Each structure stands twice: as structure tokens, then as C-alpha cells.
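Researcher: Let's walk through a ligand-bound prediction step by step. First, I give you the protein sequence. Second, the SMILES string for magnesium ion. Third, you return the three-dimensional complex as C-alpha cells. Ready?
Model: Ready.
Researcher: Here are steps one and two:
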Amino acid sequence: MGEVIKVDGVWKYYDGRAVVKGISLEVNRGDRFVIIGPSGSGKSTLLRMMNLLVRPDKGKIFFEGVELTSPKVNPVEYRKKIGIVFQHYNLFLHMTVMRNVMFGPVKVKGMKLDEARKVAEAALDSVHISRALWDKYPSQLSGGEQQRVAIARALAMEPEVMLFDEPTSALDPELTGEVLQVMKELAKKGMTMVVVTHELGFAASVASRIAFIDSGEVVEEGTPKEILFSPKKERTRAFLNRMWELYRIEPEW
Amino acid sequence: MLGLDILIENWQILLKALGYSLLVSLFSFILGFALASLFTVVRLFSSFKVPKWAVRAYVETFRGTPMMVQLFFIYYASPAIGINLSPFQASVIAFALNSAAYQSEYLRAGLMSVPKTQYEAAESLGLSKWGAVFSVVLPVGLRASLSSLGNEFVALFKYSSIASFVTLPELFYVARYIAAGSFRYLEMYTVLAIIYVVIGFALSKTFRKVERFFYVPGLMD
Ligand SMILES: Nc1ncnc2c1ncn2[C@@H]1O[C@H](COP(=O)(O)OP(=O)(O)OP(=O)(O)O)[C@@H](O)[C@H]1O
Ligand SMILES: [Mg+2]
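Model: Step three, the predicted complex:
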């Protein structure tokens, strides 16, 4: 079955206000599904509902055909197959880099320490974290390094899909590139990814599909070409114009 | 120095008294810590209202009444319900109950200083609620509480002098006894003050060492 994540008519309310309004979308195996949209439009909420970190008030979430929102299903069982990377890295502060990456395999999968270490080494290598950093604590790393460790921590669980919530927006511009590079390599290896981002360049070169979200609704969804270069909806156009302006790039239309 | 001969004459009995002071402090600290841990888990992680409310009432009561009153209450009320407590037992129990109230405040503050995102990161990897609490929230939160807990231990050591009022032969009790017997009040109490300062200082130092042992770069500074 090609479908990894399915979001079906999902609603979320905060303080009586709907922040996600009946969103439906499907992420298929191998997809690089990019979500763009203005601040406060509900992107993080939507992403965090995909691993049930946030429980939807209405609608259903499916992972590989299993309805995670069903009262009979314990979402904890499925989170180990859904990696997530946060804007502020959220590494475990009291653990070294190596311990951070070993943590999931040991605590969740019950892996032996030496076996987990091998898995962690491979994961750290794949995000280009050099040996010299393995025994450092998160606070001793740059933002870009911390975020790459966070990606390695998620990868060590060998997830079926990786969720990214604005993984570069807390980084200085010169550190953004190294994280995007790692994500591009991940995409090349065929990882299924859902990425919330403001990096339109990344979206243009990596995405297989893009959804533009505004005020809790999917305004428009399609290929990068369709969304970025010939959007049909006025709201999408206006948003992209603002974004291109930010990056000082002239739109083609 | 004048105090020196009083120390030399009575060092054995003073050493034993110091032992009592330290033991009462240590036992009540450990017992208090166990109770406080339980209280803190209830306060922060329980989904039920009544136990939460009960713990709050407990903490307010014990922080709001003098320790001496608590000690007298335990010591003199226990026979009424058929339990005869020795001065040592009564002191340990009273101080533990009192310290539990304070320690649970320190633990709560420490655990609450752990960002919720740490918990979320653990949950996202597939840990259960309690798995995340034990392997991520507690190790960070306990480190954050460490210096307050150290201060609490030193405070307990000083307040253990209250046990003299239920005739526990700890430092203050013995000093009073020696002073009254020899009429050398000033010297004896000077020596006593020095003992408290020196031991209190040593205890603080020891706790600093413990803190340094658990130190993680960037965690609390
Ligand atoms: N836990 C919460 N409690 C109350 N309101 C919330 C909560 N989480 C999100 N919101 C609100 O829901 C709305 C959508 O938030 P969300 O974080 O999903 O937006 P976003 O698109 O990710 O924005 P940004 O680009 O700034 O990250 C916002 O108005 C936000 O204030
Ligand atoms: Mg967000």
C-alpha cells in the first residue's frame, strides 16, 4: 500500500477557535510533502496531529492504514515509526550527543547498548556529525549541529516517515544550508517526508507535492511547479509574493 | 582559648550528640525525600483532583505551623493512639513530615523548570507518559532541585536542635546540660555555635560536590 499517512477531515480547536478546519491530505510512500503557509495558519498543529502529539477534535488520522485516532488504538505504539524533528531541536539536555541518539533504540525498542551504539553511529554518520562531537552535550553544539543530531535521533528509530516542523527557522542563515543538505540526502535515499518550511528553494528542488495552508485550511495543493510557479488561488499568490519579496527574488508572473 | 578545655573535657559526649544531630537530620531528610517525591508525582502528574488537593493542604499545613509544635504534637499525641515513640523516633517522624512539605516544593519547582518540549521529544520517540517522566523529566528536574535540597539538609541539621525539647540528647541538649552543670554558659554556647558553623559548612561543601558530580554543561547555567 502506497499510503503512509492519511489525514481525513481533521479539526482542531483552541479556546473555542478552530485552528485546523477540516483538513484532508494523503502522504504516499516516497513523497516529499511540503507544507507552506503564513505564521499561525495551523501548520505545526497539523503536523503534530500526524503523530498524535496533538489529538484532533474531529476527523481521523491513519498511519499505514491503521486509524490512530481510534479509541482502540494506542498511538504510543506507532510513534516509533513516525520520526519528528522540531524547530528548536529539543535534544535531551542531560545526555551527550551519542546518548541522545541511542535513547530511542534502547528505551523504546529495548535494544542492547552495543547494538544501539552501532545504530547511533550510523545515524550520526549519515547526518555528518563528526566523532569529535559524539561525547559533547547539546549546549556545546551549534544550532545546525544540534538539529542534525535531532535528525539522527529520529533516524535511529528507522521510521517509515519523517515529519519536520520548520527545522531551519531557528538557525542562522549560514547554518541553514547544512541542515537542508542532510534533508536533501534523506530525500534522495527515498525517505517519506512531511516538511513544514519557509524555505521555498528547498520546496522547489525537493518537494514532490506542496500544500499551501492558510487559516487552518488547505487552500491549494499540487506539484511544486503548480503551487510555486502557477498558483491558481489569489491567497497563494499573495503569500508567495510576500515570500519571494523576503528573499528578494522576482516571481515569474 | 577558654572554650578549648570545655571541648577537651566533653569531646566524647559532644561527639555522640553530634552523631544524634546528624542522624536525625539524615533520616528525616531521606524519609522526607521519599514522601516529597510521592507528593510531587501526585501534584504534577496525577489526573485526579482529590489527591492533588490533599497534598496541597498538607504542604500548606506543615509550612504554616512551627516545627516545634509539630514535634510536640507527634511526641505527646502518639501515646493517645497507643503508639509510644522514643524521642529519636518522634523527632525523625516530625522532621520528615515537615521536610517533606518543603522538599516537595523544591522538587516541584525543579520539575516544572523542565521544558515541556523535553517531554514531547521523548513521547515522540514512542515512550509512554511514565517512561518520559522517568527518563527525561526526572533526571533534569532533580538536577535543578539539587541546590535547594542541599540547603534543606543544612537547615534540617540546624533545626534538629529542636529535638532537645523532647529530650533527645543531641548537640543543643547536651550543650545545655554541660553549661548548666559547669556554669560556663558563654563558653559552651560559643563552642556549640562553632560546631554548628563548621559542620554546616562541611555539609554545604559536600552537597556542592554532589552537584558538581551531576553537572551537565548548559543545563542549569
Ligand atoms: N497549545 C495551544 N494552545 C492554544 N492555542 C494554540 C496552541 N497551539 C497553537 N495554538 C494556536 O493555534 C494557531 C495555529 O498555531 P500553529 O502553531 O499550528 O501555527 P503555525 O502555522 O505552525 O505557525 P508558525 O509558522 O508561527 O509556526 C495559532 O493561532 C496558535 O496561537
Ligand atoms: Mg509552527
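Researcher: And what stands out?
Model: The pocket of magnesium ion (ligand 2) is lined by residues A 43-44, 165-166 (CB under 6 Å). Chain A touches chain B at residues 51, 53, 76-80, 82-84, 86, 88, 90-94, 103-104, 107-108, 137-140, 153-154, 157 (CB under 8 Å).
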